[in-house]
Design brief:
With 398 residues, the protein is α/β, with parallel strands linked by helices. The protein has 17 helices and nine strands. The protein folds into three domains: 116 residues, no CATH class; 195 residues, Rossmann fold (3-Layer(aba) Sandwich); 42 residues. The longest helix has 20 residues.
Length: 398
């Protein structure tokens, strides 16, 4: 069910080609070409992974290499040029690493190729700045990611109908229900739910989407292959099963830090067309940071609380958003008309009328996949298949 993009096979083939004979469209330029093709994308990935394998070269230096063109050209330089360009990097890395790059070229490139092939086998796509798979929404940032690692549906990442649901890792039971219910109602209305795959409100938002066969996108604050809890792994699988996607700007094995989570919040604020903070009792929290970043970017923020709200953290969230000048809507089982009318104003081009077709297709696709897995353990003849079809039709009719 996952959309791996139209050029996944070409990417794998291009890993085998000679590396960096000519990378830039303009030989005199530095940095990535304005419009990057798939071959250049694959070569850049090999270079990035090769250089990242050197102890002492970190994330900040790799970004500087991307910006200056170092990633693109280093394999064609002699030692003196490598050392010169290395000294110009703003991150001021150790000069002895330049010699290591030059002396170990073939070894490093082979490591990079193998690492890139492993990512391809895992269906993890590389989407650098300048490539068509890169989400244009992130260009709103003054300091956008130089690349993303993506697994799942590429179209979901590019969606113009994405709403973020964010909140505390330690929610109240009312907050959990509100996040789950809000996500459920959004996917009924064809919206893609965006969140951060963290415990608490994030988790409930993703569950509200996938349990109702809606799409969701998870932005990670760590590498896409970093250790996950068992529940996160299950949710991860559910997101991909329902045509969602999981993205990270960090190299696949990078573990999370406080700074990386704050950066993740910034990406969410940029990708979302609206941010809904479900439970944010303190503006000093990570959710508060997401709200502040949304304010800076001009991303609309909308509050929502249940009727007869009594939970102190939800009341504090309402007060915090009201003080910032954002509207907070009270919803009940019977009515949320004002809330939906406001969201329609925020996304006027979105098709808000419920369309069950895509969710039905996801459900049937998952059902088909699981039936085929089960079929490996039992032999089915045509009569058995017909009987099952009749039983299924009868049960679904009930």
């Amino acid at each position: 069910m996952r959309n791996q993009g139209p050029n996944a096979s070409q990417d794998n083939e291009s890993l085998q080609r000679p590396l960096f004979d000519v990378v830039s469209e303009d030989k005199g330029s530095t940095g990535p070409p304005a419009a990057m093709d798939d071959a250049a994308r694959s070569r850049l990935l090999v270079s990035l992974l090769a250089l990242a394998s050197i102890k002492g070269i970190g994330f900040k230096t790799l970004r500087a290499m991307f910006d200056t063109g170092f990633l693109w050209e280093v394999w064609n330089w002699d030692l003196s040029e490598t050392a010169h360009q290395w000294s110009l990097l703003p991150s001021k890395p150790r000069l002895d690493l330049a010699r290591s790059i030059h002396d170990r070229k073939e070894e490093l490139l082979e490591q990079g190729r193998k690492a890139a092939e492993d990512l391809h086998k895992q269906k993890i796509l590389f989407a650098p700045l300048g490539h068509c798979n890169y989400p244009t929404s992130l260009l709103r940032l003054k300091d956008p990611p130089r690349w993303l690692f993506v697994t799942g549906n590429l179209d979901a990442v590019q969606s113009e109908s994405m709403i973020a649901i964010v909140g505390t890792r330690n929610p109240s039971s009312d907050g959990e229900r509100l996040a789950y219910g809000c996500a459920r109602e959004l996917v009924y209305r064809n919206v893609i739910v965006l969140s951060g795959l963290a415990k608490g409100i994030d988790e409930q938002a993703h569950l509200g989407a996938v349990h109702h066969y809606g799409q969701s996108v998870a932005v990670l604050g760590h590498g896409i292959n970093a250790a996950l809890t068992l529940s996160s792994k299950r949710l991860w699988s559910n997101i991909l099963e329902t045509d969602g996607s999981i993205i990270s700007e960090y190299l696949p094995s990078v573990r999370p830090t406080r700074r990386s989570f704050l950066r993740r919040n910034e990406l969410q604020a940029a990708m979302a067309r609206v941010v809904i903070p479900i439970e944010c009792p303190s503006m000093a929290s990570g959710t508060g940071a997401t709200i502040r970043r949304a304010m800076k970017l001009g991303t609309p923020v909308v509050g929502v609380v249940p009727d007869n709200v009594r939970e102190p953290t939800l009341i504090a969230t309402k007060d915090n958003l009201s003080e910032l000048g954002y509207q907070v809507f009270t919803v009940s089982r019977e009515s949320a008309d004002e809330f939906w009318a406001h969201l329609r104003e925020m996304l006027p081009n979105h098709k808000w009328d419920p369309d069950p077709g895509p969710r039905q297709d996801r459900f049937l696709g998952i059902l088909e996949q699981r039936l085929m897995q089960a079929k490996t353990r039992v032999s089915l003849d045509e009569d058995a298949i017909d009987r099952f079809a009749e039983r299924l039709k009868k049960r679904l009719g009930e």
